[in-house]
Amino acid sequence: GQECDTGFIENLKASDVQKKGKIVIHKVEGVEGNLKEGQTVHCRVDKERRIQLTAHHTATHIINACARNLLGSHIYQSGAHKSVDIARLDTTHYALLTYDELQKLEQDANQMIADAAHIEISFMERNDAESKYGFRLYQGGAVPGKFIRVIRISDNKGNLIDAEACGGTHFNNTKDVGIIKLTGQKRIQDGVLRLEFVAGKKAMEYINSNEKILKKSASVFSVEISQLPKTCERFFDEWKGLRKENRELKNTICEILKENLKDKENVRLQMDYLDANEITDIAKNLKKFAIANFDKKILVSDLENLDIKNLKAIREIKGEKGNFKVYVFGKEDVEGVKKMMNSS
Q: What pTM, to 2 d.p., does this model score?
């Protein structure tokens, strides 16, 4: 589940690495003629990318161990992915986590980082590893081979925290992860919960980005960040009240227009403040009419043979004076609709 390293082979950028059987294939960008069969080459790994991938992979083991401790022994990794920008852990759990559970999981993971737990990387004979750690070694699936690579996390007293068979890159101590930030969760199927997170440098970038959003939002309302929730609630309540008043005013306007226009012919109106449903309600008593909303590019009319190139009928409605249609049009048709509206 960990993305590959990238870097350079001589002066050629290695953008992808894949293993086919026992052969490791490097995809390079540039003139391949610069490399010759049997040539000894110098390779440079993208160090920053490697460190970030390592942070995300070690964080995956930390979160898995903390989730099992917090939620129960049924927690088992069913999948994972670690890229540079974000990581995710799919784990066996029957429900989405509550806010408090997410907070506790994140706190426990960062506490393990603060505790500087030791990470031991070793190769063990499969039977010995299974005898010592059990089949919980195989988080995410069984690993082939007589010998397996085991990642063991233990506290400062040597007590086991987690042990998994894993071929990914890892730090030697949890403190090197720096920080873990949970960014989201979703149920991807029955009994499987996906936890999304960032760690290390990407976690700091995520936190800083959110802080900038909070500061900008606070500046818009001219309040402190701590006052944002209360301020947003107040503005939202005021907006709901104004929306209700606006709806009532529009209903009054529609009733007045319906009464004043009733049974009129050759009506041409621009009503950018009314939506399609409100316009059609007014139009049901009209004949030979055209009503347009230029903001939403809507035309309601019973006129035939409208010479407007891209006019598209989306609905036909039965009115008291006959059927009429609701049309939509594009920006390029605005002048054509206006010309039609100004005609008698």
A: 0.76
